[in-house]
Each structure stands twice: as C-alpha cells, then as structure tokens.
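Possible regression after last week's pipeline update?

I re-ran a chain I had predicted before the update to compare outputs. Posting the input and the new output here so someone can diff against the archived version. Not blocking, just want to make sure nothing changed silently.
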Amino acid sequence: MTRQMLSKLGALWDELERDPTCRCIILTGAGERAFTVGADISGDLSAGLETARMVNHALLKHDAHSKPIVAAVNGDCIGGGLELLLSTDIRAAVPEARFGLPEVKWSICSHPAMHKTCLSRQIERNHINVDWRRRL
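New output (post-update):
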C-alpha cells in the first residue's frame, strides 16, 4: 500500500461510517493471491506526525467504528495488512492464507511480540507459522 492508497483507505472508512445505508463492511483483497501485503517500502519511509496519523487512521489503529468490519482473508496477509486485520471485528481466512511481519527484518516494527500475541489470540493456531520467513 502506498501512502496515496492509505490516504484513500482512510477517507473510505470515514465515508462508510457516515453512510446510513451501510450496516457492515467486508474487507478483502482483489483476486486470490493476497488480502494485502502491507506498505510499499521501496520509497521514502520517513514519517512525520501527520503521515503517522494518516497511516494509523487507514489501518484502524485508534478509531472506533459503529459498524462491524469483517476481514475475508483470501491469501497473503503481510505487514500493515496484518495490522489492519487485527483491527477488524470478525476475521475469516482461507486455509492457504499466510500471515507475516517481514518488516522486522528492517527494524521497522516496534513490537513484533505484541503482534504475535494478538494474532495467536485471534486466528486458529494451525494458521500461524512462527518461522514465517521460510514460507514468504
């Protein structure tokens, strides 16, 4: 996800929250390959306060929504996609779905243990591969 995509996702959350005809939000990836593979780390990774707010809003880190958000994981769920998944209310995954936090290789993720703890509470254990680097 590029910063532009994250900005549009945040705007979409706001729009759906205001829409009186929307009663539930279902989030899934396009196609069968991935739910989302997270941020585009090929560009500028610097982030000021405003960028951090925008990313946090897009990934639902601090916002409460009045409508249930369902994640339908249809493939790889990596990095920021995993953070987004952890913020949804209901999660369903195909058996082939893979989950990972590759950003820890670049010291980007500040608390990988927290993500693993949250993930293990929210997804069946047979979908969790502690040594995900071999699979991705």
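Follow-up from reviewer: compared with the archived run. The first strand starts at residue 25 and ends at 28. Marking as no regression found.
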